[in-house]
Amino acid sequence: MTTPLKFKEFIKEKLLVNSGILKKNIISIATAARWLNVLGYFFQSQKQ
């Protein structure tokens, strides 16, 4: 399951490091969620 937090960590730890961009906290969780929406992911609450 992809979550905004996991996506943010992927961007920070893998994508930006491999690109040579080393800034910390480059995107927020809200930004990661928006990017995932653009990529076709939609979020919903899981009911018990």
From TrEMBL:
- For this entry, the protein name equals 5304_t:CDS:1
> From which organism does this entry originate?
Ambispora leptoticha
Source organism phylogeny: Eukaryota, Fungi, Fungi incertae sedis, Mucoromycota, Glomeromycotina
